[in-house]
Amino acid sequence: MNKTTNILLPNAFEFVEDPQLDSDSITRPSVTFWKDVWRRLFKNKVAMLGLFIITIITILAICVPLFSEYTYKGQDLVNANALPSSTHIFGTDNLGRDMWVRVWVGARVSLAVGVFGSVIPSLIGIVIGGISGYFGGKLDMLIMRFIDVAMCVPSMIYIILIMLFIGSGPISIIIAFALTGWMGSARSVRGMILQLKEMEYVLASKALGASSASLIFNHLIPNTLGIVVVSMTMGIPSAIFYEAYLSFIGLGVAPPTPSWGQLSNAGIAVFRVYPSQLMIPSALISLTMLSFNLFGDGLRDALDPKLRS
Amino acid sequence: MSKRILEVKNMHFSFYTYAGEVHAVNGVSFHVDQGETLAIVGESGCGKSVTVQSIMKLTPTPPGKLKQGKIEYMGEDITHYTQKEISSMRGKEMSMIFQDPMTSLNPTMRIGHQIAEGILSHENISKEKAKQKAIEMLIKVGLPNPEKNFMSYPHQFSGGMRQRVMIAIALVCNPKILFADEPTTALDVTVQAQILELMNTLKREFKASVVLITHDLGVVAKTAQRIAVMYAGKIIETGTARDVFYDPKHPYTWGLLDSVPSTGVQSTKTLLSIEGSPPDLFDLPKGCSFAARCKYCMNICREMPPEETVMANGHKASCWLLDCRAPSVPSQKRVSRVSKLNVKEAAYVE
Amino acid sequence: MSNDTLIEVKGLKKYFKVGKNQLLKAVDDVSFSIKRGETLGMVGESGCGKTTVGRTILGLYDVDGGSVLFDGVEVHAQKGKEYKALTKQMQMIFQDPYASLNPRKTVSAIVGEGLDIHKMYKTKAERMEKIYNLLELVGLNREHANRFPHEFSGGQRQRIGIARALAVEPKFIVCDEAISALDVSIQAQIINLLMKLQSQYEFTYLFIAHDLTMVQHISDSTAVMYLGTLVETGRTEDIFSKPLHPYTKGLLAAAPEADPDYEMSKPSPILTGEVPSPINPKPGCRFFGRCNVAIEICSKERPALVPVDEHHLVACHVVNTLKSEV
């Protein structure tokens, strides 16, 4: 053996006094589940691009109407149907309203409808799906059969009927979405709950005497959140699209309040002469939907436990 | 001396993850001779599976990387073989069976076709002949009714039968070496006994060598001629089964053997366990990796990794206690139960 | 019922419906009792119903027949608050140290759950103090309280599971394959911990396992299960030194030991075949298909568990006929 050992350690071959060191201590940094998800998401460039575009659109939607000299209904009749220029960045419409402001006010409506129109039905779905999956039996069967029957009819028909019944406007759209959209997420949450409730930690909690409500809300639902968040994110673009579609056919947001769908509707009348009036709102719809989809995709990859390393 | 089939020299294998480098295998050397069973024993995460998978090039690279070392198969250096070259060897030269046969069998393909597929990809024979060979193989692994089983799907089989099928697939092309990664861990005790018996019989019949990876010392005792004990990516002791079981030299091996109560005697004493947990492979200690859990830890153990001491009969261990300057410790020799059994007890063994 | 019996299981039946008209008889007429402060080891292969027995005793499953008495109280007759009070006395340690801890909760939330449910503290500080004490009791540190389960090794996770069960200060603990998923050296740690806790707090254990050596080490009595039925029960030393039922014999012979010379001297495995499906079992002895000493009656009539001596009970026609002939 080499000599340096002896020089370094005169008592090298004596037993140490506290032989069992704390080998149970954890040397790795503490990483929570969501931190880990965020880290993986951050690495995904495409998803981050999506998030970046969403952020820019949101900031513009908030700030532009606040700081612009124009309002969404103020008319500048002299400059009606103006092309994009330095005074009117996106030009004006046939009533001389500034398109730049109208597009970003419309973005507020579209984004709000998109986000709430996806999140609210998902939340309703989580609760109903959670209860249905947890209790099982007759209640579960009843809820699931109801969903089966209700989902036979395309949701657009319900939405149109509801809108006709309670009138148009952003709030009505969200209500209509909430009444129809929960079924899909209830179904998928129920499926997950059925799997999770057989997990040993749920049994452990049951054995400790935990109540059903505590089991559902403390143990089961938090563990479905990852997937639900993804489906919410992916639901936003389709809600935006539904809103645009409804406004486009005249059932959504009533004028003069703009939304992207409504702007497209107005733009189509003058499409041959002033194509920018249709192109700009529809391009924004597409860009937003794409960004949400890219972000949602990245989020799903980040949440997939199989990819955890 | 029989022929050397496989030799691994100073293998280092790491995984590169976001948190840093995971040193899964740190300088492992071993060899396998023809017709013998080498058992690699160790706790989960000690690198025993990675060692074998990296020989077969089954670990994804990246994130894994073979940093150093040499792998020789029948005297030929296969360290830098491409995936294509190594895959032509899989099945024909070396095969592998896994812990969970369900995930390694294709659920949508008939059992017989999965066996025949292997033959067809390595041998230039007709489909009819391959089928014949597959059926013969099913008989050899002890599956009754081979004609019927040939047309069955994996889900129709029980765990033990699936493992038999896996063995059939692995051995059908007569490989020289079979890697078995925890082949009986998922099985019941009585089925485990049958599968181990089958592996022993077939090994003799096919004159193959077996590298058995397991954490179960009982399984090792039943099958292995030689043993390599792994801890934190290193082989800390290796030798013949009798040497390692009856005259172990490394404190970790002592601990492992002490942790298993023997069925012979019942005692209410506390088991002599190894306290603590294995080290994190991200961040290995600079000295001996077992030092933190060792009862006989000396000052030097925390400073320098021990070198391998070679004893008689190829028995090697890496521990500072084997240094001539180390203080002596109580003898850890063990006696087989057979020598203790009296006639009366022996009757119950049956 | 004598006062030193804590758990009395009588004719327990638990069936599961599988598809239409298919009945999985997971537990079929099982009776046994456990004395206060003792450990009953329950062994058997996968699918023999031992886990179901454990979970049914705790009231996690309903019964399809028979009863479970805990300290004279019928477990399955208790509802609501009464059942909740019972959960404070009976606890469980689970097999899979990965699946048994909620990945989204910190260790202190996991261990503290029982304290919260049964309101076992007055102040937040008292709660944390109790959690720290529990962690130290099972050999973990205070610093571990704010970590998440995935940061721990298997053995450490199992300790967290034990701390969770101990939090409510139970009398009776079901250890459901509590060491099967762990490494050998860690198994010994957990066994030692369980035995230390038993001598400290006089726990009664139902120790469910398939590892015979550990059962022999920890149990006072042993029960061997096969396909939903008990085939043999008795004091542990009797079961292991003079097993009577052919299945027990086969099981003992099949378990390999860390002793190569002994292993090489053993004959080939006695038991062939595998455990058949417990769905719609045939009449007669459940072990009939694999038994090498079966006689005619075995295929027709199910043997009852009858005593061969004071503590040793066997359910086997062959053993009984031999005994009556003598």
UniProtKB/TrEMBL annotation, chain A:
InterPro entries: BP-dependent_transpt_permease, MetI-like, MetI-like_sf, OppC_N. CDD domains: TM_PBP2. The chain crosses the membrane at residues 46-67, 109-135, 156-181, 201-221, 228-254, 274-296. Keywords: Cell membrane, Membrane, Transmembrane, Transmembrane helix, Transport. It is found in: Cell membrane. PROSITE patterns: ABC_TM1. Residues 107-296 form the ABC transmembrane type-1 domain. Its main location: membrane. It is a multi-pass membrane protein. Belongs to the binding-protein-dependent transport system permease family. This is ABC transporter permease. The lineage of its organism: Bacteria, Bacillati, Bacillota, Clostridia, Eubacteriales.
From TrEMBL, chain B:
The keyword Plastid does not apply. Its main location: membrane. CDD domains: ABC_NikE_OppD_transporters. GO terms for molecular function: ATP binding. Residues 6-257 form the ABC transporter domain. It comes from the Bacteria. It is a peripheral membrane protein. Keywords: ATP-binding, Cell membrane, Membrane, Nucleotide-binding, Transport. It is found in: Cell membrane. Belongs to the ABC transporter superfamily. This is ABC transporter ATP-binding protein. It comes from Fusibacter ferrireducens.
From TrEMBL, chain C:
SUPFAM superfamilies: P-loop containing nucleoside triphosphate hydrolases. InterPro entries: AAA+_ATPase (IPR003593), ABC_transp_ATP-bind (IPR050319), ABC_transporter-like_ATP-bd (IPR003439), ABC_transporter-like_CS (IPR017871), Oligopep_ABC_C (IPR013563), P-loop_NTPase (IPR027417). The keyword Phosphoprotein does not apply. GO terms for molecular function: ATP binding. Belongs to the ABC transporter superfamily. Residues 7-252 form the ABC transporter domain. Pfam families: ABC_tran, oligo_HPY. This is ABC transporter ATP-binding protein. Keywords: ATP-binding, Nucleotide-binding, Transport. It comes from the Bacteria. NCBIfam families: oligo_HPY. It comes from Fusibacter ferrireducens.
